[in-house]
Structure formats: structure tokens, C-alpha cells
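Format notes (please read before filing issues)

Several people have asked whether sequences and C-alpha cells are stored in separate files. They are not. Every record keeps both together, in the order shown below: the sequence lines, then the C-alpha cell lines. Line labels are part of the format and must not be stripped during preprocessing.
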Amino acid sequence: MEDAPPPVVAYGRIAGFWIRVLADLLDATFLGAVGWLLSLPLRALFLRLGEDGVFIGLALSLLYAGVLQSRLGGGRTLGKRLLGLQVVRLDGSLLSVDRSLIRYAAVSFMVYQNSIALAAVTLLPFLHIEWVQIVTGTLSLVLFLGCVVVVPFHPLKRGLHDLLVGSIVIRGGMPDPVRTNALKNDGRDRIIVIGAATLLAVSLLISFVLARPASPLPAGIARGRSLAADLPLQNVRVTDTLELGAHRSRTIMVFGFVPAPPGGGEPDFAGAEQVLLQRLRGQTSASSDVDRIGTNLRTGFNIGIFSSYRSQQRLEDVASRQLVK
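Then the structure lines:
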């Protein structure tokens, strides 16, 4: 009697780069729809929170991706479930919640870097926003290279976020372990992680060395937030731009977010704009090298996964006090 042939094992495969991108787009669309739905009953609250509401979206997206891509959610967000993808460890087991959160945090930092920088300066006022933005921007660039650019070139389609937690993204089940082990290379993966850390350190060093302080602002304006200390503004910053060409031109602009008043109603664009321009005039009147001053104010809300904005800009010639645009 002949022996029965061994059963045929149906293996899955490593998920490719573009189908992972598609799954991420589906998840972003779903989270955006959730944000829009939340904004219907909670619009007044979001308008009062203004841009500080961005951390609502960060918490929701961390909860959504961090939990669903762990063992609690079967390693699948909605987008991955629709496309038959799953996040697992190399041995086929599912990620713990903490590992899943770390994996998603590395990716989400690229989206929320500006909000994280502003939050850091708000919590620690002694920090300079320019230096904080250098750090967050450089880290975001390194994460983009490691978590996005590396993936299509890695034999197992693993990015830096996968290497940090030992994960892999599969499609239709675990791939052939023989082939997976053949493509696995711990030495190469360590080089990628060490290379990312080295690139971050070198980039930060170069950025700090090459960074040039802004041209000296007139007295008082250098403390940008002091211009709006008693105004209901968020995320105030001052830019000092020097344009060199046929005619040298120096422009000082104040940017800020106008939240809705606590009692409801429309934000007072005109009032905030008038006060800021008046203070700018007073600070620049003795400075003959400032040609234009202006404000760029915005309102609405941003909860990270969904935002609704409108803005208004006013630019004034210092000598004539005429509106430029």
C-alpha cells in the first residue's frame, strides 16, 4: 500500500508596500469619518479647544491602531482586515499592546510632530520653539526614511517600526517559514536601526551647527507670546523675514489661532488683529529697517483626525500704514 502524499500547506505571503499604504489610507479615511461625526454634536467644544484638540485625535488613533494591531484586536485594523493583512511577530504570534503602541507611535509622530513641538513649548516655556522644531523635524525625517522608504527595499518589507518591535505584516496567513528564515538577516536589521540612530544624531548636530538665529527683533517682539499675553490666542509665533533682491524688504508677521469664546459665538478676528497691529506699530516705530508688519490669524478646530479651518491675513506698510494685502 502506497503512502499517502503529504498534505499541501497553503502559505500566505509577505504584504507588499503598496497594499500596506492602501490599508493605511483606508484607516485614515475611517478615522476621518469618525472625527467628522464627533464634530457634529461636539463642534462647540472643539471650537473652544481649537488646535489644542489635536491630542484628541492622537489618543483616538493610538487607541484604534495600537489596540487593534495587538493581540487584543487580532493584529488587524479595519483597513488591514478589509485587505486581508495582519501584523504579527516573526514566529506568528501577535504583538502585545505595549509593542503595538510603540510601533504605531513611531509612525504617528510624523503626522503629529508640529503639535508635539507646540505642546512641548507650552508645557516648558523656557524651550525655544525653533530648537524644538529642529529636533522634532529631524526625528520625523529619520522616521520617514526608516518607516516608509526602507519598507519597499527590505526583503521582508519591514520598516524601522517593525524592526523595533519584531513585527512583520503578512497577507493571507503566515508565509513559508523556510523562505522567511532565508530572507531574515539580523545583522542587516541591526545596521538599519543603528544607522537610523546615527543619522538622527548627526542630523541634529548639523542642524544645530548650521542654524542661524533670526535677525534681531525690535525690543518686546523677541518675546513673541508677550504680544498676545492678554489675548485669547493659541500657538502664537513671530516670524522675521528679510528678502534680498532689487529692493531689500523686512517683514514681521504674528501668527496665531483664535479659539471660539467660552460662551460660544464667532471668534473675534477683528479685535485680535487690531490689538496685535497696534502693538506691532508701537514696537517697530523706532526701527527704520522694518518695512511691513502683519498678522495671520486662523480659527476653527483641529482634532488630529479631522480639522476645519478658515484664516485671515493682514499686511501693512510701516511707513504709510496702508494695507498691502
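For reference, the curators noted about this record: Strands lie at 13-14, 85-89, 167-171, 234-243, 249-257, 292-302, 307-317. The longest helix spans residues 17-49.
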